[in-house]
Design goal:
Elements: H1 6-18, H2 22-36, H3 42-57, H4 64-75, H5 79-92
Helix pairs in contact: 1-2, 1-3, 2-3, 3-4, 4-5
Length: 98
């Protein structure tokens, strides 16, 4: 039974993400991010990171760096965020394909 609570959606999405079920995790994490956006809660930072991770795992670059920026604004600098940002820059370039 999917939860409508954004933090709950993030937890469910994270569990799927950990199992490599990115296609299933994606809509849950997108809803979680939308629901938590601007709350400044730690759950928002985690949801932003999880969505960025999931999109990158699916080969998508859209919004990944912005999500990581927002995650970092809320929870401060963490090595996981720096590592994923590097990966995003490597795979996606920094905005300009070249």
């Amino acid at each position: 039974e999917p939860s409508a609570n954004p933090a709950g959606l993030n937890d469910q999405g994270y569990a799927l993400m950990r199992q490599g079920r990115y296609e299933e995790a994606l809509p849950l994490l997108e809803q979680a991010v939308a629901g938590l956006n601007g709350s400044g809660q730690l759950a928002e930072a985690y949801a932003d990171y999880n969505l960025a991770f999931t999109r990158l795992a699916l080969g998508r670059c859209d919004g990944v760096v912005e999500l990581l920026d927002r995650s970092e604004q809320v929870q401060g600098s963490r090595k996981e965020i720096r590592k994923l940002r590097k990966e995003a820059e490597r795979r996606c370039g920094d905005g300009d394909e070249g």
